[in-house]
Design goal:
Blueprint (H helix, E strand, L loop, with lengths): L1 E5 L3 H12 L3 E5 L7 H5 L8 E2 L7 E2 L3 H8 L4 H10 L4 E4 L2 E4 L4 H14 L3 E3 L6 E5 L2 E5 L4 E4 L1 E4 L14 H8 L4 E7 L3 E3 L2 H4 L5 E10 L2 E12 L3 E3 L1 H15 L5 E5 L6 H14 L15 H11 L12 H12 L1 E8 L7 E6 L4 E2 L4 E2 L5 E3 L7 E2 L4 H19 L12 E3 L9 H5 L6
Parallel strand pairs: 1-2, 1-11, 2-7, 10-24, 11-22
Antiparallel strand pairs: 3-6, 4-23, 5-6, 8-9, 9-10, 12-19, 13-16, 13-18, 14-15, 14-17, 15-16, 17-18, 20-21
Helix pairs in contact: 1-5, 1-12, 9-11, 10-11
The structure holds flavin-adenine dinucleotide.
Length: about 450
């Protein structure tokens, strides 16, 4: 069985290793000069590889059953076991799993070493521009020549973070082979807020809970370090609500972003607490009495929000005014007016519709022998290692399924091709492709 894998990212390398371990001859075609560029920047270079909690709600898709069927075949425990066999000792930070070394590059290194050990051939600087199937075989056109194989795994990633080489060309390849692409948009990215109050806080970070509201209902909510920016809000809570917020915003709904700056204190407890601060230091001005609770810029914004900026002395504040202030602390809100683009996003929502795949093999129901893996498909995970887990799970399933199928009948009558897994052939390997893992 000869298998072509397009893309040497997390999912493509996993698919290549899985297929090669199952006995296939595997050739990976990668358009960049080096493989795994995005993998190397994950988790700020520390690589949040997976998560000990794998609730399905952490992975957004139109086909949750499909995702479940794939995760069951290669779970987070399998991923940890797989990498630990390759030498990656993991550490657990509140469920978020990292390599103990704190180096994403080592996760890439062990994958590449294992691929090499299994005989996988990797050709870098080899962009695939066109794929077709003829007489039961797949052909992948590159600037040099067309590679041929019995099966093909598309693992081209998404459009997120183009600085790592992501160009979304996989969507075009999938589409040209008859697959529906569900609308693609950036996710795990910063959210724009119309109100100046948010933007005046640019540069400030504080702990809180961010909720995205629409039509009077909470769409999503997440707690952690909020980062106020020149355009609105970022940080992990913003990323965690971004899928729902962006989806609603794109559907032209009004989306309200509300930051609870005191999530562990209910409003009922907050009001008497604020009163007690006044009683302890009655000599303070309104401007000063929140000092010590929040950053001074945030204190000023909260007083503005409650309409009590400039009021002095603080003892003058009425119960109603204190209630308003507590309300602003519990719900410092602004209207979403946009979101950061692909260049600032960690992932993409949408992609190849899982409904057009055979359960639960990652094989196309439209073109037998064609498989998909990773972010190219309609799955986007929350922060916490979910996107990489999808890359590992879908890559593993695609690779093993592809290796396990019988080659289609038919003759490879195409000329000017290069067989998957074949030797260097007519061009010098190092000179033409940069990386040849094994001969
Ligand atoms: C800054 C940042 C931080 C992140 N941190 C985390 C994290 O900590 N944890 C987590 O779970 N997820 C994280 N992610 C998301 C995660 O990196 C991706 O979901 C994951 O890498 C996707 O893997 P993939 O194999 O599908 O795609 P990629 O890793 O993008 O690999 C696709 C490969 O295909 C190649 N390619 C594309 N088109 C072609 C073509 N036509 N021909 C040949 N080759 C092609 C690309 O060059 C690329 O090498 C982060 C993302 C970013 C941007």
């Amino acid at each position: 069985m000869e298998i072509l894998v397009v893309g040497a990212g997390a999912s493509g390398l996993m698919a290549a290793v899985a297929a090669a371990r199952a006995g296939a001859k595997v050739t990976v075609l990668e358009k960049e000069r080096t493989p795994g560029r995005k993998l190397c920047v994950t988790g700020n270079g520390k690589c949040n590889m997976t998560n000990s909690y794998m609730g399905l709600e952490m992975l957004k898709t139109h086909c949750p059953d499909y995702v479940r069927g794939v995760l069951e075949q290669f779970s987070q425990t399998d991923a940890i076991g797989f990498f630990s066999q390759l030498g990656i000792y993991t550490k657990n930070r509140d469920g978020w799993i990292y390599p103990n070394s704190g180096q994403a590059s080592q996760v890439l290194a062990v994958l590449l070493a294992e691929a090499s050990h299994c005989g996988v051939r990797l050709h870098c600087q080899t962009p695939v521009t066109h794929i077709w199937k003829e007489d039961g075989r797949f052909y992948a056109q590159t600037p040099g020549w067309a590679y041929a194989g019995d099966a093909c795994v598309l693992a081209c990633g998404s459009k997120a973070a183009p600085q790592t080489g992501a160009d979304g060309s996989g969507y075009g390849l999938a589409q040209s082979l008859g697959h529906r692409i569900l609308p693609v948009a950036p996710v795990l990215t910063g959210l724009h807020v119309r109100e100046k109050g948010f933007r005046r806080l640019a540069g400030i970070r504080c702990d809180g809970r961010l909720s995205a509201w629409s039509d009077g209902e909470i769409l999503a909510s997440a707690q952690g370090e909020l980062q106020f920016t020149s355009y609105g809000i970022s940080g992990i809570p913003a990323f965690q609500v971004s899928h729902e917020a962006i989806t609603a915003f794109q559907a032209e709904k009004e989306v309200l972003l509300s930051a609870d700056l005191s999530p562990d204190y209910p409003q009922k407890a907050l009001e008497p607490y604020l009163r007690s601060r006044i009683e302890r230091c009655p000599y303070k001005r309104a401007e000063d009495f929140l000092a010590g609770l929040f950053h001074e810029k945030l204190c000023r914004e909260l007083l503005l929000c409650a309409g009590i900026a400039g009021r002095t002395p603080v003892t003058d504040l009425s119960q109603e005014e204190l209630g308003r202030l507590a309300g602003c602390i519990k719900g410092f809100s602004g209207h979403m007016c946009g979101f950061q683009d692909f260049g600032h996003a960690q992932a993409c929502m949408g992609g190849v519709d899982l409904e057009s795949l055979i359960p639960y093999t990652m094989e196309s129901a439209v073109v037998p022998g064609l498989y998909f893996a990773g972010e190219l498909t309609d799955v986007d995970g929350a922060c916490g290692g979910y996107n990489l887990q999808w890359a590992w799970s879908s890559g593993y399933v695609a690779g093993t399924s592809a290796a396990g199928r019988s080659p289609d009948k038919g003759s490879a009558a195409y000329t000017g091709t290069k067989e998957a897994g074949a030797g260097a052939g007519e061009k010098g390997e190092e000179e033409s492709h940069g990386h040849a893992l094994s001969d």
